[in-house]
Amino acid sequence: MKISWRTLPTVLLSDEILDKAFTKARKASERVEDPHKIFRTRKQMIRMVQTSADSIRSHFDNMVSTWPSLDHIPEFDYAMIDACVGCDDYRKNLATLQWAGETISKIAGQNVKKITRTANIEFMHSTRREFYGRVGSIMGRVEKPLKWLNEARETLKQLPQIDTAHPCIVVCGAPNVGKSAFIEALSSGKTEVNHYPFTTKRIHLGHFLHRRLQYQMVDTPGLLDRSMESRNAIEMQAIAALKHLGSLVLFLLDPTEKCGTSLVEQQNLYSEVENLLEGTDILLVTSKADLIEPRPELWDEVARHEQEYRSGEIDDIVDMPLLLDSNGHVTMSAIENVGMDSLRMEIVKRVMESQPDDPLALPEGWHMKTQGLD
Ligand SMILES: Nc1nc2c(ncn2[C@@H]2O[C@H](COP(=O)(O)OP(=O)(O)OP(=O)(O)O)[C@@H](O)[C@H]2O)c(=O)[nH]1
Ligand SMILES: [Mg+2]
Questions:
Q1: Ligand 2 centroid distance, CA of 111 (Å)
Q2: Which atom of ligand 1 is nearest to the CA of 225?
Q3: How far is the CA of 176 from the centre of ligand 2 (A)?
Q4: Which residue range is the domain that position 306 belongs to?
Q5: For a pLDDT cut of 90, what percent of the chain falls above it?
Q6: Looking at the predicted structure, is the pLDDT value of residue 369 above 50?
């Protein structure tokens, strides 16, 4: 399942919704034909009240049903929405629209009754005017919620579009260790570049396919690359959200320190991430293996295996040696593309192990019918 904020239409503000509704209402009244003035006026006023109310009601109903309901979304999305805009506000503002639509419908019903019961033309007009006035004041009360939702949509649109039904590998580590380069190099298609709403850094979302299963990889700049003290509450919430997402976390460590963060600091960060994402499988990977002197012992052998693997069309798990550094940590070079395929294999194996096949699980999209439970 994947929430798509980008396809949500722009949020119209009160004035625009009112304009649309009143224009429709006027046009509807112009179509009324009746030679009898009282009957004609009655029909016209009723049409104006009903058409404008229906237009606004259906506009709001539509919004409420197209905006994702927080009750049925994956935990990751919930936590991200909460971190970015706040779930309580989200619910409250959508509920206000629902209320406005229902209230306008109700008042319209009362005014239509009044118009139906009178033969006084002036009273028909004034009832219609009174209705428009009340609609205007209700619309005044949804002005703020509409603006809020519009901003929320802009904010949420920036989130990476992660499909929580597929495995996701979270790639973290200090700034400049090569997170983005790693994702770029391992991705089969184009990577998506975005921001988390609370950082200006570019995040990358990429994927590769293995046996028709899509593996997503996302990096975490500005989230898991700073010390605890400098993180704010929103970032902490977003980190908590990552727990619901990661099938596997890769922590990249740049042994050359070319990234600008010392090894000691990087190791401290690693311990912090271990604590923060407790319970998630974390794999420590050293990056920039091409810069390690001397080159890792298995460099040539791994490169040869990977070349063979790439020239075949095997889509299964292949036994390949992992590229290891002198400390026994998995390593790779995104730039020279060595150690990447063997690490990809390791990722697939680990993800598969963390998600054991449940023989009783139904295929996605199946719903068990509840029978005899009425
Ligand atoms: N030699 C070498 N350089 C690399 C490798 N991977 C990344 N780099 C370089 O390291 C620098 C940082 O790489 P990025 O991928 O932008 O690092 P990042 O972790 O995404 O950085 P932030 O998003 O700022 O946290 C770039 O200049 C890359 O070219 C590698 O495997 N070998
Ligand atoms: Mg980056």
A1: 60
A2: 25
A3: 7
A4: 168-354
A5: 68
A6: no
